[in-house]
Amino acid sequence: MSTQKHITPGYIEQDELISLLDKNPLDVIIVDVRDEDYENGRLPRSIHYPSDTFLLNLNDLITEIANMKPIPTHIVFHCYLSQRRGPKSAKYFLELSSSRLPHCVVSILKGGWEEWYIRFHGDQSKVKPIENKDE
Known about the structure:
Blueprint: E1 10-12, H1 14-23, E2 28-32, E3 46-48, H2 54-66, E4 74-78, H3 85-97, E5 105-109, H4 112-120
Parallel strand pairs: 1-5, 2-3, 2-4, 4-5
């Protein structure tokens, strides 16, 4: 019988994420793992780590977050729908970052970018422009 602990991040609702961002934006970082569908904007406080190179760059992401001042306590992942890439990336991140970022809560944005954009596409505080897409 295996005693290995399986770690699975939970989902966060849009309104809960908005509440966290309104309360203390520096306490939250959002990791956008969209690939070729990285368009039409991005969430506030988001950084882009495409899923197609996510595992190659995972240690860089962990280091980037660990070096933030202050270190965010909430890390939210999403892709377009948050059904495959977002949850998979969040799980890998949680498994590999738990020793360096033990106090962080890792979750997945329910509904992903699609539902966020449908709800907030006219709100510039909730949908930010994509800058330097080619980087």
